[in-house]
């Protein structure tokens, strides 16, 4: 199969991939914040602290990746 690809097509595709990845990262960040808030609100004994910490680490990683 012979497919002709123009450099403009490649750069457009790469830009679209980056936008899609950024959107996915933002959605993941929002989901982590939601989970973390639920854990904090329902954790009266402090048992969920490791999970909250894991959410914070994941959020920090996403923040760095989105820069």
List the helices and strands and how they pair.
Layout: H1 7-42, H2 49-66
Which spans of ≥5 residues are poorly predicted at pLDDT below 50?
A: none
Using the CA coordinates, give the radius of gyration: 19 Å
Give the topology string: H per helix, E per strand: HH
Structural class: mainly alpha
Biggest sheet overview: none
Beta strand %: under 5%
Question: Mean pLDDT, rounded to whole units?
Answer: 78
Number of E-state strands: 0
- Number of discrete helical segments: 2
Roughly how many Å apart are the termini? 38 Å
Net shape = elongated
Bin the helical content. over 70%
Describe the structure.
- It contains two helices and no strands.
- It is an all-alpha fold.
- It has a domain of 39 residues.
- Helix 1 packs antiparallel against helix 2.
- The longest helix has 36 residues.
- The protein is elongated and about 45 Å long.
How do you describe this structure in short?
It is built from two helices and no strands.
Q: Descriptors for this entry?
A:
67 residues; mainly alpha; 2 helices; 81% helix; elongated
């Amino acid at each position: 199969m012979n497919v002709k690809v123009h450099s403009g097509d490649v750069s457009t595709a790469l830009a679209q991939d980056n936008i899609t990845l950024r959107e996915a990262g933002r959605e993941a960040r929002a989901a982590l914040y939601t989970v973390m808030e639920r854990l904090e609100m329902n954790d009266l004994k402090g048992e969920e602290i490791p999970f909250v910490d894991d959410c914070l680490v994941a959020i920090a990683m996403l923040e760095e990746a989105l820069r």
